[in-house]
Amino acid sequence: MAVIGGCREYTGAPYLSVILALKHKNPDGQKLLASTLTPQPQSMTYAPYEDDVHMSFGSMLLHGLTMSEGNGDLETRCRAASVISHVQKDNLQCKEKVLRIELEAPIPTLGGKPLMHRMMKYLALSSSMKSNDGKSSASRNTYVEPVILKLLIVWLSGCPSLVQCFLDSRPHLTYLLELVSNPVRLSVQRGLDVVLLGECIIYNTSIDSGKDAFSIADVIS
Known about the structure:
This protein has helices at about 5-10, 15-25, 25-35, 55-65, 75-90, 90-100, 115-125, 140-155, 160-170, 170-180, 185-200, 215-220; strands at about 100-105, 115. With about 220 residues, the chain is mainly α. The chain has a single domain (about 5-220), classed as Leucine-rich Repeat Variant (Alpha Horseshoe). It is found in: Golgi apparatus. It comes from Oldenlandia corymbosa var. corymbosa. Keywords: Golgi apparatus.
């Protein structure tokens, strides 16, 4: 499913409307879009937007989502995350497909990392972002964090295997608890934090001590 144009253009409102129409009550359409979510080699990670023309639709989304490790193009990253949320929403097969995506590490010997781990890294980056005057960049965080949190919420909803993947990295839960208890964060941000925490209990089918629903509830309380 080849695409033309850059990631910014193809994650804009007009194209998002087309994607929503394609996936509405159409799980096969979602699967079609999800099937194109293939990571590009590390050499393409920092490629210019013009090179998106050579990628599939899904690869272009992943490129827009992961191309910058710093502040980067936040608008493009948020748009890509929003589209990926819609691609997998209420579709277990698509969620499992996204779960299997591993992004190539900068150093090949380190192996790939699940996309979920990268999203948590971006959440941490966005919450600690500073503006030029050294103060917290609240205006950016207002839309960056909710979009990332929404992607994670949609992803984990009704999918125990994804909850398990999330909890496999202990720092994820620890960091999420820190966000919830941070009084400086906006109520909408903390509300999404709480929803994500709730999913770690509701959709948790683990029997491993320390990772099961009761253990998570104890940690939260």
